[in-house]
Design a protein that fits this description.
Blueprint lengths: L1 E3 L19 E6 L4 E6 L9 H4 L9 E2 L2 H14 L3 E9 L2 E13 L5 E10 L25 H11 L8 H17 L5 H16 L3 E6 L7 E3 L2 E4 L10 E3 L6 H7 L3 E4 L12 E9 L2 E10 L8 H67 L6 H33 L7 E4 H18 L3 E5 L8 E4 L1 H18 L4 E15 L2 E13 L21 H7 L5 H11 L4 E4 L7 E9 L4
Parallel strand pairs: 16-18
Antiparallel strand pairs: 1-3, 2-3, 2-7, 4-5, 5-6, 6-7, 8-10, 8-14, 9-11, 12-13, 13-14, 15-17, 18-19, 19-21, 20-21
Helix pairs in contact: 3-4, 4-5, 4-7, 5-7, 7-8, 8-12, 9-10, 10-12
Length: 582
């Protein structure tokens, strides 16, 4: 029977089929579509020829392992040289070991886009089957023992190595092709996707997923790449827990493939009948989890398949480790470049900030020395202005010195008992004149009924943090006011091997210019400012919040910043361990 779905000149082709000593003849294009299909064994081994013609080989009568066969076809079309080799095909549960001759069909311009394939069924004797399997017919339904298939796969590999078991031969060939492709990139997303695609296609599973894994207390991970057949529910993007997924905990503990068979997966929305789970690892540390699912039936995984998955996972684990290291180095390089740029901007801004008060000091003192003051009162004003400029210059220099100590890891803070009300009184003494000068309202509130609150910290550093935060509020607030308040967070905490009943939360709220939401993550980056325009308009080094955060962390607390957006004010809080209940 001959069916021709092609414009190729093949009329009369079926008449000469018996003379070709071929059981099978078909023509297919490079994408694998059957344009013509003829099968001489219709009466003995039926194939639905009328259904196969015009379909893709991956959907009907197909190679047992698709990728190596497709590469052969591509090679013949590219080189225009015929090839002869043995290859197993299958249709549904039937298995057909074939000897094939693949020839290019030349076009008038000498190129080719189609191949002519002639095949002859191989008998058991031609397969060199062991005596234990001589009773098996080559084209019967696939047995649970895959020895026949393994012998055919050896012929695909091209050579038979006596020292290597036949099953390893073909999978080593496929493994080499997959790993060579994966090693060409350092893009983690591409590595993940190529891994699941390769495993899914070679093993013919319903679904294959991969999830990155890090040995941390957080047991959650995400499906970052997925191969699946069209009618199978998607798992891509799902958040999974390693201690609740079937077989994951055991696979992570043993670093070996774990097989799970499920007789009744009706309650599983992802229809998993059979699973194989294996971690990828580098230097005995897992870095991802691969899970293969058979959703249409239970599956007996062969030793060849398990070995193949195990060895591929070993290669993938190494590739993922190298790609992760490269990614981290690239991120570190970009961060270093950005930090270098920020430091350059910081030095430029700081040099301007240092010169401004220094020039003021020199100017006012020069006026006094030159006798330019009209009377003693004006001379005193000149000296006071020079003094204020000197204090401002000292604060700038202290900021620079503090951040230098912090970056060098030499910021030592001695902790002791601190009375909060003393800190608040001194803060009010410092800032009240500045607040009144800008016509702002200042309120200081403590928790009701708690007049004596004692924290465990460093008095000078707590005062420094408060001055930084309140100073920013005054600087960036033009109308309205500033509110300082306290709150107690009651929870048992252990800091520096000491137990405390909770934290005291210091809150500074203002009605100032606020900060755009998308720029708030830059507030706690050293040498980074939300907007360079702010520096020119308001002055400062931009280190206040960074230094405050480091100081508070050294005392066991945290700093948080809140703002609903530009023009909507801001709130800054920080916590210090509470020494005892008030």
């Amino acid at each position: 029977m001959l069916h021709n779905n092609s414009d190729l000149p093949l009329s009369g082709f079926g008449d000469i089929l018996p003379g070709l000593d071929a059981d099978l003849v078909f023509i297919q294009n490079q994408s694998g579509e059957y344009l013509l299909f003829s099968w001489r064994q219709c009466d003995r081994h039926p194939l639905p020829v009328d259904q196969i013609t015009g379909t893709n080989m991956a959907d009907t009568f197909k190679p047992l392992v698709l990728t190596p066969y497709q590469e052969r076809i591509d090679r013949v079309i590219t080189s225009l040289i015929p090839e002869r080799f043995s290859y197993p095909f299958c249709y549904e549960e039937y298995y057909f070991p074939l000897e094939l001759i693949v020839s290019p069909i030349l076009k008038s311009n000498g190129s080719a886009t189609h191949v002519l394939v002639m095949g002859r069924l191989l008998e058991n004797s031609q397969l060199n089957l062991s005596p234990n399997h001589s009773e098996l017919i080559a084209y019967r339904a696939l047995p649970s023992n895959f020895d026949i298939q393994q012998k055919m796969l050896v012929q695909i590999a091209g050579t038979l190595c006596r020292s290597v078991p036949p099953t390893s031969q073909i999978y080593q060939t496929i493994l080499g092709q997959i790993t060579q492709k994966i090693r060409r990139t350092l893009d983690l997303k591409e590595i993940w996707q190529q891994t699941v695609n390769s495993l899914g296609q070679v093993l013919g599973v319903s679904r294959c997923i991969i999830c990155p894994y890090r040995s941390t207390s957080d047991k959650s991970t995400q499906v970052v790449a997925e191969y699946r057949q069209e009618d199978i529910p998607m798992m891509l993007g799902l958040n999974l827990w390693s201690d609740s997924e079937l077989g994951w905990a055991q696979a992570l503990a043993t670093l070996e493939p774990i097989i799970i068979e499920r007789s009744a997966p009706e309650n599983d929305p992802y229809q998993r009948h059979s699973l194989m789970v294996i971690p990828t690892a580098y230097q005995e540390q897992p870095n991802s989890l691969i899970s293969l699912h058979q959703c249409d039936r239970t599956r007996q995984w062969t030793a060849a398949e398990i070995d193949f998955v195990r060895e591929l996972a070993t290669h993938v684990g190494t590739v993922i480790a190298h790609a992760t290291l490269y990614q981290e180095l690239e991120e570190a390089r970009l961060e270093a470049v950005a930090l270098s740029r920020l430091k350059s901007e910081f030095l430029a801004n700081t040099s301007h900030e240092l010169r401004t008060p220094l020039n003021g000091m020199i100017g006012f003192l020069q006026l006094v020395l030159d006798g330019m003051a009209d009377d003693p009162e004006e001379e005193r004003e000149f000296i006071e202005e020079a003094h204020q400029a000197a204090i401002h210059l000292l604060n700038l220099i202290n900021d620079v010195l503090d951040i230098a100590k912090i970056e060098a890891g030499k910021m030592d803070i001695e902790l002791a008992l601190v009375k909060v009300d003393e800190v608040l009184r001194e803060i009010e003494h410092f800032i009240r004149p500045q607040v009144e000068q800008k016509n702002l309202k200042l309120t200081i509130q403590t928790e009701a009924g708690n007049s004596q609150i004692i924290v465990y910290g460093n008095y000078q550093r707590i005062l420094q943090v408060m001055l930084n935060l309140v100073g920013n509020s005054i600087k960036f607030t033009h109308k309205g006011g500033i509110n300082i308040s306290l709150g107690i967070i009651r929870e048992n905490v252990i800091i520096q091997n000491q137990q405390f009943p909770g934290f005291v939360e210091f809150r500074v709220v203002d009605t100032g210019i606020g900060v755009p939401i998308e720029k708030q993550d830059r507030l706690f980056q050293a040498f980074s400012q939300v907007d360079s325009g702010y520096t020119k308009q308001y002055g400062g080094t931009g280190l206040g919040l960074v230094i405050s955060q480091k100081l508070v962390q050294a005392m066991g607390g945290k700093v948080k910043f809140y703002s609903l957006g530009e023009g909507l004010g801001s709130t800054v809080t920080f916590t210090i361990p509470l020494y005892q209940e008030p």
